[in-house]
Amino acid sequence: QVQLVESGGGLVQPGESLRLSCAASGFTFGAWSMSWYRHAPGKERELVAIISGNGGITNYADFVKGRFTISRDNAKNTLYLQMNNLQPEDTAVYLCNAILRGGDYWGQGTQVTVSA
Fold first, then answer.
1. pLDDT per position as a tens digit, 81-103
2. 100 burial via Cβ count (<10 Å: 0-12, 13-18, 19+)
3. Which of 2, 13, 50, 77 stands the most exposed, by the fewest C-beta atoms within 10 Å?
4. Pairing of strands 110-114, 3-7
């Protein structure tokens, strides 16, 4: 079955960096676009970044452009999100998402907290 498992979250100070990972299994990873979303308390879930199956096309939400980079390693079935210059407003649960032929799949999320 499809599984998405995020890791790499944590508590950091403003200006610091984190790299999130999402290990995927149960489907042909390289054939599908993948996305990162985030969900902060009291806010709606929002799209952070999306990457095409071969990694050649990426798109970002305006609020992370120039700070975050989405990438993937199809040989390792892993999606990444490099987050630089983190700010308190980036505090959220970060989730990876795959929309496949069989449905819409989510990981359990990884908490990112940015605080001085």
1. 999 999 999 999 999 999 998 78
2. middle
3. 13
4. unpaired
